[in-house]
Amino acid sequence: MSELLQFLISGVTVGAIYAAIALGFTLIYNASGVVNFAQGEFVVIGGMTAAALIAAGVPVILAAPIAVVAGTLVGILLYRLAIRPAGQAPLVTLIIITIGASIFLRGAMQAVFDKQIHRYDGFSGDAPLRVGGATILPQSLWIVGGSIAVFAFLAWFLNRTRAGRGIKATASNRMAAALVGINTGRAMNLSFALSAGIGALAGVLATPVTFTSYDVGVLMALKGFSATMLGGVGSPLGALAGGLLIGLIEALTAGYISSDYKDAAAFIVILLVLFLRPQGLFGARIVERV
Amino acid sequence: MAGQGTTTDVAPAGTGRREYSKSEGAGRRRIGPGLRTFLIFVALVALGALIFPSSYFYRVGTLVWINTLAVTGIVVLLGYVGLVSLGHAGFFAIGAYVTAIGPNYGIPSPLAMAGGVALAGLLALIVGRPILKLSGYYLAIATLGLGMLIWMVLSKEAWLTGGPDGMVVSGMNARNLFKMVGLSLKSAEAWYWVAGLVAAIGAAIAVNLAGSPSGRALRAIHDSDVAARSLGVDVAKAKSRAFVISAIYAAVAGALLALANGYITPDTGGFMHSVEMVTMAVLGGAASVYGALVGALILTALPQVLTVFADYEHMVLGGIMVLTMILMRRGLVPFIADLWNRRKS
Amino acid sequence: MTRQAVAAGVSALALLAGAPAIAEIKIGATLAVTGPAAFLGDPEAKTLEMLVEELNANGGIDGEEVELVLYDDGGDPNKARTFATRLIEEDEVVAVIGGSTTGATMAMAPLFADYEIPFISLAGAVVIIDPVQEYVFKTPHTDRMACEKIFADITARGLTKVGMISGTGGFGASMREQCLDVAGAAGVEIVADETYGPNDSDMTPQLTNIAGTDGVEAVVNPGFGQGPAVVTRNYAQLGLEMPFYQSHGVASDEFIKLAGDAAEGVRLPATPLLIPDQLAEDDVQRQPVQDYIAAYEAAYGEKPSTFGGYAYDAFHLLTHAIREAGAEDPAAIRDAIEAIEGHAGVTGVYSFTPEDHMGLDLSAFRILEIKDGGWTPVEQ
Hints:
The structure holds 3 protein chains of 3 kinds. Chain A contains 11 helices and 2 strands. Chain A is mostly helical. Chain A has a two-stranded antiparallel sheet. In chain A, a hairpin with a 2-residue loop joins strand 1 and strand 2. Chain A starts with a helix and ends in a 14-residue tail after the last helix. Chain B is mainly alpha-helical. Chain B has 17 helices and 2 strands. In chain B, helix 2 packs across helix 17, helix 4 packs across helix 14 and helix 10 runs antiparallel to helix 13. Chain B is globular, with a radius of gyration of 20 Å. Chain C is an alpha/beta fold. Chain C folds into 2 domains: 196 residues, Rossmann fold (3-Layer(aba) Sandwich), CATH 3.40.50; 147 residues, Rossmann fold (3-Layer(aba) Sandwich). Chain C is built from 12 helices and 14 strands. Chain C starts with a helix and ends with a strand. Classes of the chains: A mainly alpha, B mainly alpha, C alpha/beta. Chains A and B meet through helix 4, helix 9 and helix 11 of A and helix 7, helix 14 and helix 16 of B. Chain C: One of its GO terms (biological process) is amino acid transport.
């Protein structure tokens, strides 16, 4: 019994990280129809910036927000310099652009920071808490709490605020949105900024558990992309569910079947879900951009 | 800026190819487009052999042709039909690994190679149907997942594949092929010729396919699934066929790489390799085999050039990808062909 | 235009080949300076650059300058092979150091036999030198030796039942296989065998399974990079108290920093590089170890790692051989390397023979235990 609990705790911790990344994907997709493969780099920027600041003696309470702001700024730059100039490009062009941007950012981080693996202490210490025979790190609670908070924020923001509704309208029909007076440019800007900020926050929260280095972004993006598509692209609920689900599948496969094929199990589930339900678990039927 | 004209038009990639062939239509009446492409490619292979001063150049040249071949498959899938695959390195690796494993079980290299290509094609046929029902990003994640699964099997089943460190490929040397016809070449030169000739044949087949009725069906799907269906095209079957063909291209290229390198690792089936293949296609221009060649040439030679400032290699590479896609959305070859046409008129 | 002229043009324009060469000795290297194996290749590259500078400042080899031509293969075997070809054909080096990873090394290896150029690999797996390839040497211990050393320490503690949790990267997978292979002969029984991906962030499920296996008395974790640090933290998180062993893949201060308090009590086989001040006065490795650490800290402001040490030894073995054999004939350099006996490096004392192209025995490995955030040799 305590075994199962431990597996679940592991799955939820890891899944919450995937979910936070997937939520970043979702926001940008909602505004622009772009799946941003550079999303993983924001996670790294957040983690590396926080690690560098904390190593330099800046207290966490300052370092964490600065890292998130740094990620946000890079997000805005990414939009202005790489995505906006591309205009209404076909999907494969956008994929290559964001992958190119992620390679560029990886190179930049290697130059700005270093090639070492980094970590800092958990916000509430590293002493594990005991829960019914299993253990959980306090930082895991921060991660899970952070993901839920981001999810709640997005759900509120997209449905209840003017700016958020602007983003949604921009996504469904940019021209119509512009015609009814929505500043679509600002909506896009905002979505990239927020999404990058969310990614950086995920990095800041996760680094005490996952560690970070300049080149882990690809992997983060892959997991986040998988979670996004499993849940259904464009749905915050889907992103949250997709992330947690992949984390749980991995942990339970490692626990009960074979740790060798835990990543494979996640991909098999994704493929099966897509065969049966091509729009993902929570996705609406999408209008294809060609 | 020349890019202006294309920022609003979302022209199907197919137009680039047509314009391109128009621009050199002079010899068209006498020899078919496939044969013409073959001859152009062979001429380029020979040109390389003429100017290359050392085995190192032959080595890079060999990689260029092998990549061209693999990317030609992407051209068929992406340029002709408009389907994005982020998992084609998986097929590449299947071709490579079966070629590598065969001799360990007493199967001669050429037979193993054929087996690997057949296996890749068969797998594409089986998984193609359900996967190709998806579109857009869902197709991308499904192909990505497929590629990842292949990669995982290759890196975990160490008893068969040597695991993540890879395995030695014993078997034939291209040198012996040329010895049979009385030519004595260095091993690097021999592989260069083999890779170049296979790439030329692959390009010719792809060009002929584009001109055939089924090629036109593929192009119709590129424009619109619905429209193609209304023209009586069996969309599912045509997509599946393109998928299988492109998988076969990747597998042949993989088999060649395995033999030319004499060593193979699971990374050949990894996500980054899939991305690299698609990037080559899009960079050069996914609509034509010449795009495949130019894309493969640039991305293969670039890291060799960039060794001078290795620290910034990633930044330069990423920057080039982004800029090309923004300024020359349809890729280099159509872009230059446009410029050329404009200057002439 | 002659063929040569065109060729020269192609070389110069298309490939921006290296600076014009004056009479000097060229040594090549292709390392994983970036990419997933960067923490191997980065200190290796820094070490080589530092040593070349130092050597030239002291007059080079018999008055001739040494030039290092270094390429970054990112750990990609395909690139490594291309760079190896380039080093041999274009840069005309007399010897090559490198291959941070086993995959890169094995992809290059056949070339050196073809061209008769000596090659010293910095990668771990036993396949590099077994079977022996005429022109291929290596400086690190094999993963097989690491397993033997660890198992010897486990049995010395009176334990026999071992649980393994291995990384699935090249290093972990290869060492896992070797450990499974030598377990029987070493008198231990592997009762649990789990794995994790190199970038995984939580290994508690695997460790829970190991802890739940009947009779496990000790746990061994082959792997490198961040994985072992995560495993170590998870090990402490779950409150496991069985003796816990890491591999030489994480033998660096970096590991203690990443794993924190959780690293206390962890044992691993390592080189003397980690315990410079605890080496006996008459230890032949004391001098090279202290020299290397002092030079590296002066050059880069940080402590060298075990992996940099492999490069340090490779460079000194190679320059020693060039002094013996001259820089004219690579085959003679190869012979000189093979003839080296009793060379005290930072990793161990090397004695090569035609049958042994690594030249180290088990004594080069020392079992260290992490105590109070530092390394302590385990008395044996």
